[in-house]
Amino acid sequence: MKNIVFDIGNVLIAWDPHAAFRAAFPDDATIDQFFAEISFYDWNLEQDRGRSRPEAVAAIHAKWPEHAPLLDQFFDRFPDTIHQKITGSWQVLDDLKTAGHRIFGLTNWGAETWPQAKQVHPELNTIFEDVVVSGHEKLIKPDQRIYEVLTGRNNLQPDACLFIDDSPKNVEGAQIAGWQALHFTGPDELRNSLKELGLL
Predict the structure, then answer these.
(1) Mean pLDDT, residues 165-180
(2) Three-state SS across 45-94?
(3) Domain range holding 161?
(4) What local confidence, expressed as pLDDT, does residue 98 receive?
(5) Is the full-model pTM beyond 0.85?
(6) Domain-terminating residue out of 29, 50, 81
(7) What is the pLDDT at residue 103?
(8) Which residues pair with 164 in a beta bridge?
């Protein structure tokens, strides 16, 4: 038996941030321009690191006050961005669980939007033995310390953990922490890799 640790965003659940802004812009290309203007992904990552909604909106207001109301609404519209499951990944997870492996989660996710994720996808409440959420820990992957939170909290040996993540940097972070890790590129490729490792 091995401890299998899943990233969540874009491994189990597709994340489409554009969905929160489509009512305000004519097309996704215009949204991309807006994202570039305000460094949206960097801004969002700070929520994953533990920044609160009021602090996030204040940061936008300080530079682009005209955009602050729209970015404030992002938190309310966040469920629109995570409706789609990556079905094949859930099937792999279920098969791993059936095979007797312990299943954990480790995700860069904001503390204030994580409850919304569990409402949209109630399975997140029960599928994992434990899940480490970056916004709760105020640490984000690939910081080695967040991997240590999961192993320490669950009394796991790093070399007995296999991490699955769509980000090469996060995969490398897990490897630096002493874990085995797979770069997720799709459910079929994941299944094949797990079979090669003798885990399925």
Answers:
(1) 98
(2) HHHHCCCCHHHHHHHHHHHCHHHHHHHHHHHHHHHHHHCCECHHHHHHHH
(3) 3-14+84-196
(4) 97
(5) yes
(6) 81
(7) 98
(8) 6, 182
